[in-house]
Amino acid sequence: MSGGLTSQCEQDIQKLELYLPLLENLVQHVDLIGDDPRVIGWTSNLKIRWTSPLSCSSFFNLMGPRFFQIDNLRFELGTVLFFYGAHLREWASQVLVTDLVRSATLFRKAAGVYQYLAHEVLPSLQGVRTPEGPLEATSSVSSVMNLICLAEAQIVTIMKAEEKQTADGLLAKLHFGVVQLFNEAMDFYLTAAKECKDISPVLMDYISCSKVVHELRSYKYMAQAIKTEGQIGTAMGLLKLALNKVERNIGGMESWRAIIKQAMDTMADLLRKYEHENEFVWHEKIPYDHHLPVPQGTKIATCIPYRPERWERTLALKI
């Protein structure tokens, strides 16, 4: 236990929240001095080095992790903030099973950290970073993580809505809102892949598989809502369309494929139920794909803005 906290993740977050105001203050004072060669030399002598968990070399390098050094204090600030966002996201995942509201709040806080990184901190590093540099020092990667965290916050919100037995039509729109957020994350990933030679495909696999799962759930709830309105033929058409789309695009890690298969099995069971009912009662025809309704998305998850704190004390840097 440290500081009354039993979770290692919480302890790490507490340490980061103590360190970040000091670092923000130091960066602010160094920025005031400007490009003095001696300051650059002092920064270089600090030998600040980080690994990149999102790089291919971190997954497949048998010689151990690769270390990156950029002689700029904003690189340290950016990487620590990226680390802080990752810990908030991890903590959100840990409390998910016990407290949905707290989990969603933590995902939104993480999204705010990544948004601040992408727009306020990292743009100033683009001139000193090389294509072989750390992925965490690029705005596009922070934008990917921002959108992933927003999608995960919305997923938790949907879980709460499902507990309250919210209407199928609204659940369909919320799930498709998650799909839209993952689509945006894909776009930024593709931008990052052009900027960074070493980006791991595992991140893209996670985005793709998560998108597939929530697209399936969106179609499922949409089909149930339309069936309730008496259009069982259209409901069957939506289920068939969704299953056919996924069968052509399934991929990713085995554990993720298992989640997709479970969602597909649920939809297949629902389709068989509707087909059986239609055969004996309704006798409706299934419309062609281009006559089926198109899913509509609703995005309700928003960032909790990250507001940097500074240790308000003047530093006497002798030049």
Report the mean per-residue pLDDT as an integer: 89
Order of helices and strands: HHEHEHHHHHHH
Strand order of the largest sheet: 1-2
Helix content: 55-70%
Q: Which stretches are low in confidence, meaning pLDDT under 50 for 5 or more residues running?
A: none
Large-scale geometry: elongated
Rg to the nearest angstrom?
24 Å
User: Which structural category fits the helices and strands?
Assistant: mainly alpha
How many DSSP helices?
10
Would you give an account of this structure?
The structure is a single chain. The protein is mostly helical. The protein is built from ten helices and two strands, in the order ααβαβααααααα. It has helices at residues 8-33, 37-46, 56-60, 73-95, 100-121, 139-163, 168-195, 201-228, 232-247, 254-282, and strands at 49-50, 68-69. A two-stranded antiparallel ribbon has the order 1-2. α5 runs antiparallel to α6 and α9 (232-247) runs antiparallel to α10 (254-282). The longest helix has 29 residues, at 254-282. It is elongated and about 85 Å long. It starts with 7 loop residues before the first helix and ends in a 37-residue tail after the last helix.
